[in-house]
């Protein structure tokens, strides 16, 4: 009987996990952690500073305490170690950009059942290219997306610098490389590398700002372009990081083939994403992320490392390899003969 009750409780808590998630997302949206990084504050002070209503504020803040993101002593709230390190917008480890983007997409999950019945929550898969084109027309959207990519890529850069052998390579290009966080990590770890970030021309301004901030201006170059319609940069290695899962399988195939054609003999294609394990049963994060991609994009989804290797082999790559990269990301490497 105890096991039955415990099981029921566990299921109920699982059903409420979306509520816990929203408490975190709203706290990031409101800037709670950034505000408290300056100094601890009482509930009254936080209500005033963040324009909160007295009815819900105490329960909201105490929920953050119970989750482990805030502590409370003698009526004063302050950040815990993890929220201070990663949720203060003024610190380099900030992952709030990704969480803010997810907060904007949160309502999409209300349409999961529709996705399961229909296969899509958008009207036309052709909207996929339109979403790509529209990015250049909205500077605010670009900045928001760049901040989100920084949050996602913070762990990937150091891992890729350490776990892949860069000693035999001289140049690389990060395709869809946003404002250059990944390239910056690789260049800092391996100073002999020459890096190019290839992204939409509208990204150049935020790229230049970010490289200046990192004191890497001139060390990582930017090439504006569209990887669907324009020639890819020439380099010893090309990288698609958190890119292929944005697109439908046909467009993924096109991009892998295009990278193969752009690489010199002996060149390498590196692809990383939160890939689904080949048995499709060990990694709930990648499977849930795949559903998320289906909800927010017309054709996006995650895929297995085996799927990625197959794309590479079909494109002509002679050798492929799979490397665990982070707790959630997998790297697949293809070598052109």
From TrEMBL:
InterPro entries: COMT-like, COMT_C, COMT_dimerisation, SAM-dependent_MTases_sf, WH-like_DNA-bd_sf, WH_DNA-bd_sf. It comes from the Bacteria. Residues 135-318 form the O-methyltransferase C-terminal domain. GO terms for biological process: methylation. The keyword S-adenosyl-L-methionine applies. CDD domains: AdoMet_MTases. Pfam families: Dimerisation, Methyltransf_2. GO terms for molecular function: methyltransferase activity. The keyword Metal-binding does not apply. PROSITE patterns: SAM_OMT_II (PS51683). Keywords: Methyltransferase, S-adenosyl-L-methionine, Transferase. Residues 18-87 form the O-methyltransferase dimerisation domain. This is Methyltransferase.
């Amino acid at each position: 009987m105890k096991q039955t009750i415990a099981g029921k409780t566990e299921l109920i808590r699982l059903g409420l996990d979306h509520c816990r998630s929203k408490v975190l997302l709203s706290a990031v949206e409101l800037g709670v952690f950034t505000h408290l990084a300056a100094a601890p504050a009482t509930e009254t002070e936080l209500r005033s500073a963040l324009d909160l209503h007295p009815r819900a504020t105490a329960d909201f803040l105490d929920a953050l305490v119970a989750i482990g993101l805030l502590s409370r002593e003698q009526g004063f709230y302050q950040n815990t170690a993890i929220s201070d390190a990663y949720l203060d917008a003024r610190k380099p480890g900030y992952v709030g950009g990704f969480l803010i983007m997810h907060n904007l997409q949160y309502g999409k999950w209300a349409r999961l059942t529709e996705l399961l019945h229909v296969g899509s929550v958008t009207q036309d898969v052709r909207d996929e290219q339109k979403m790509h084109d529209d990015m250049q027309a909205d500077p605010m959207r670009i900045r928001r997306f760049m901040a989100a990519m920084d949050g996602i890529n913070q762990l990937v850069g150091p891992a890729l610098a350490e776990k892949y052998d860069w000693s035999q390579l001289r140049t690389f290009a990060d395709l869809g490389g946003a404002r250059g966080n990944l390239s910056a990590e690789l260049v800092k770890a391996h100073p002999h590398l020459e890096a190019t970030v290839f992204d939409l021309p509208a990204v150049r301004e935020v790229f230049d700002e970010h490289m200046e901030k990192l004191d890497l201006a001139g060390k990582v170059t930017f090439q504006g372009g569209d990887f669907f319609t324009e020639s890819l940069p020439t380099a010893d290695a090309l990288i698609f990081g958190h890119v292929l899962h944005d697109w439908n399988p046909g467009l993924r195939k096109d991009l892998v083939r295009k990278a193969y054609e752009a690489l010199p003999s002996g060149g390498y294609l590196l692809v990383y994403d939160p890939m689904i394990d080949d048995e499709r049963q060990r990694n709930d994060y990648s499977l849930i992320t795949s559903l998320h991609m289906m909800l927010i994009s017309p054709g996006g989804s995650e895929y297995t490392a085996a799927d990625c290797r197959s794309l590479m082999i079909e494109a002509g790559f002679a050798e492929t390899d799979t490397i665990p990269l982070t707790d959630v990301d997998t790297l697949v490497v293809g070598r052109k003969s």
